[in-house]
Design goal:
Oligomer: heterodimer
Radius of gyration of chain A: 22 Å
Largest sheet of chain B: 6 strands, mixed
Helix content of chain A: 10-25%
Shape of chain A: globular
Radius of gyration of chain B: 18 Å
Largest sheet of chain A: 11 strands, mixed
Distance between the termini of chain B: 36 Å
């Protein structure tokens, strides 16, 4: 049996206890949010008292906050009382013995997730922590990781097994007071991933999570916490898709990364959630807070994202460069088409001496897609010798889309060096014709040109993710020209 | 024998303005034809029409390529059938390496013809071999398509692509423009080395200079969208002496 088949079996066998498919009955709280709902969630997860208290504090604070309106995105007002805040599939003890027994719908979902079974080779050597709905259902390679002292588990499990770590770090990078959606997430977060890399350990494999949202009208509130101790290294991959649905789905995740002295965290995302129909109806609202703290000297955090999905994206993976000589990187490809809207970018906050940051943002707008790059580079008075390089390129396909670049630069230390480059180009008909004249089809030509445009970002992705990302772009931009 | 290319009474316009006003031309396999003409006479329009550019509308006439209705084919299918256009101004494709681009092209064409696609090793072998024909610098292979290439490098890259794609009909649109004499000689040598009994060439040029290096079998003078004279290579020399003015009168 090949390693990949084995992986699938492992996942499916273990995973099935919670059930995957839409038909399986779910235990859901009625829509609405109040303290009782939060107590229900916390009780369901058998959480310690301190965590319930923390959730409640976050909730109470959230009640005092207003929805942010500064982003350049437009959508009908969200009714937070119409959302159901907990959905956990019921346990099903009838596990399939082999792949033949696996529900074909599950296999189909893998197809939809862009992980067709025959391509599972790419997952060999990749530990998978799949979050289906709100509960983690499978974690593989855990033992192998445990040998090195690496903890990779669902957030709920981390709360049970490693409460001291969770308590020490939760909310230290993104406090619940940070913003409206971070507060909401802190109050109601369902599950997510937890990673701890001990001192001096290089994680021997890419850690990966696949998300799927499968419960109608259910908000998803993932919480991810990754801690990399001194001299540690980890590369974490996050990829998500969602099946088509009617109602808008709110997704407000929080990701916190902490890198200690000489530690490095690489966090890559391929995001392909349902963007809605041509009018954007039914698409996902992706309001995410992602932030990394370079706490230690010479620590490094890299964000790479490929965003092609969601009706609305509101997302600024950021780095707080507190340790001296720490490094922050942000590489992004964002695609908007039809009625998709994205307001995305990054924040690089330089606190430590000789801190460096790099921002490379590639935005592609097609159809009526609207896209804003919003980035902040802040050099605090303590950050002697800080350097930043930013490059923001936009590509337009068609004449009804838009690209906007809003860089904020705040320099409070005269020794800082900041560079900002920005370009806007239109995908050239002459480029496409040139490709066609060489025998290349229009679709392949577009994908070739777009991939060339995004190359600087793709090369920072792990190999199998880069391939997936290129495919995603192809599918997303099909029929966008002409 | 079926002609390689047969153009019959071709009329074409751009933005409603008629540029080609009745072109007739037959190219047999192995022949090299040169079209000469002043600026704005319709030379480039003819190359664009033959390759299927959307901006050009054929209003009358027909084009047969090895007996097939060329106008019914999409630009990519024309290329796959063996029509190659060497561009006057090759575009740049940032971030896409020359090698990757060519491999995509070669395999798209092979697929169309029902041939197995070349793997990386076979492809590399092919391009290494063809590079010698045009004395291509190896470092250009991994640079993005035409990006930052000098004028001469771009033109040489076109000939290199032609050498790799091995078309049946090569249309070279002002392949000599912007080249110094050394670059011109290299490009011409590349073209000459690709002359073959089953391959036809259509050279489009403004100057007779190119034809000293690539000697055509036939020369056609295009003025205001019509051929005003056709003849052998000596016609190019005559043109060089007298200029286009003489012919412009003829077209008027």
């Amino acid at each position: 049996m090949s390693a990949s088949t084995k992986t699938i079996e492992e996942i499916t066998r273990r995973g099935y206890e919670h059930g995957f498919v839409t038909d399986i009955e779910q235990e859901t709280v009625p829509p609405g949010l109040n303290e009782d709902v939060i107590r229900f969630i916390s009780a369901k997860k058998e959480e310690p008292e301190w965590l319930l208290e923390w959730r409640l504090e976050a909730y109470r604070h959230w009640l005092t906050m207003k929805e942010p309106t500064w982003a350049a995105v437009h959508y009908p007002k969200i009714d937070f009382q119409a959302i159901s805040y907990y959905a956990a599939p019921k346990t099903d003890k009838n596990r399939p013995k082999s792949l033949d027994e696996v529900d074909p719908k599950l296999l189909e979902t893998y197809e939809k997730l862009g992980i067709p079974l025959h391509e599972r080779e790419v997952l060999a050597g990749v530990a998978v922590d799949a979050v289906f709905d709100s509960v983690s259902v499978a974690t593989s390679y855990k033992a192998k990781l445990a040998e090195k002292g690496i903890i990779f588990c669902s957030f709920s499990e981390a709360v049970r097994e490693h409460p001291e770590l969770v308590r020490k770090y939760l909310g230290t990078v993104v406090p619940y007071r940070d913003n409206f959606y971070a507060a909401l997430n802190s109050a109601v977060f369902s599950d997510g991933s937890f990673v701890y890399i001990p001192k001096g350990v290089r994680c021997p494999m890419e850690l990966s999570t696949y998300f799927r949202m499968n419960a109608r009208n259910t908000g998803q509130f993932e919480r991810t916490l990754i801690i990399c101790d001194e001299g540690g290294y980890v590369s974490y991959l996050e990829g998500c898709t969602a099946p088509q649905r009617d109602e808008n789905q709110l997704h407000a995740a929080v990701v916190e990364l902490i890198a200690h002295d000489n530690a490095e965290i690489k966090y890559s995302t391929v995001q392909n959630w349902y963007p809605g129909d041509e009018e954007g109806r039914g698409g996902i609202y992706n309001f995410v807070t992602k932030r990394g703290l370079c706490a230690g000297r010479k620590s490094k955090i890299s964000w790479t994202q490929v965003e092609t999905g969601s009706a609305i994206t509101w997302k600024y993976p950021s780095c707080i460069l507190r340790g001296d000589e720490s490094v922050g990187e942000f590489y992004s490809v964002a695609v908007t088409r039809d009625a998709q809207q994205a307001d995305t970018g990054t924040k690089m906050i330089h606190i430590g001496k000789n801190t460096r940051s790099t921002i490379v943002s590639k935005g592609i707008s097609a159809g009526r897609g609207q896209q804003t790059y919003r980035g902040l580079v802040r050099i605090l008075p303590t950050a002697d010798g800080a350097r930043n390089f930013s490059q923001c390129d936009s590509m337009l396909m068609g004449d009804k889309c838009g690209a906007h670049t809003v860089p904020y630069i705040d320099v409070q230390n005269p020794t800082a060096q900041i560079e900002h480059e920005a370009t806007t180009s239109k995908i050239g008909e002459e480029q496409i014709f040139y490709c066609k004249q060489r025998g290349i089809s229009e679709e392949d030509a577009v994908s070739l040109i777009v991939n060339g445009f995004c190359k600087d970002v793709f090369r920072t992705l792990p190999m199998e993710f880069a391939v997936e990302a290129q495919k995603l772009l192809e599918v997303t931009l099909e029929n966008s020209v002409g | 024998m079926t002609a390689l290319l047969e153009i019959k009474n071709l009329h074409a316009s751009v933005d409603g303005k008629e540029i080609l006003k009745g072109i007739d031309l037959t190219i047999q396999p192995g022949e090299v034809h040169a079209i000469m003409g002043p600026n704005g006479s319709g030379k480039s329009t003819l190359s664009k029409v033959l390759s299927g550019h959307e901006g050009y509308e054929v209003t009358e006439g027909e084009i047969l390529f090895r007996g097939k209705d060329l106008l019914a084919l999409s630009p990519e299918d024309r290329a796959r059938e063996g029509v190659f256009l060497g561009f006057q101004y090759p575009v740049e494709i940032p971030g896409v390496s020359n090698t990757y681009f060519l491999k995509a092209a070669v395999n798209a064409i092979r697929k169309y013809r029902g041939q197995p696609e070349l793997d990386a090793m076979e492809f590399l072998k092919l391009i290494k071999e063809r590079m010698k024909l045009v004395k291509m610098d190896e470092k250009l292979l991994n640079r993005p398509v035409n990006e930052g290439f000098s004028g001469g490098e771009k033109k040489r890259n076109e000939i290199f692509q032609m050498a790799v794609l091995e078309p049946t009909l090569a249309i070279l649109d002002e392949i000599d423009s912007g080249l110094d004499i050394d670059a011109l000689r290299i490009v011409a040598e590349g073209v000459n080395s690709l002359r073959a009994p089953d391959r036809g060439f259509l050279l489009i040029t403004h100057y007779q200079r190119l034809l000293e290096y690539i000697v055509p079998d036939y020369v056609h003078v295009l003025v205001r969208g019509k051929f005003v004279r056709s003849g052998g290579k000596e016609l190019a020399e005559e043109l060089e002496r007298s200029g286009y003015a003489l012919f412009e009168d003829a077209a008027a």
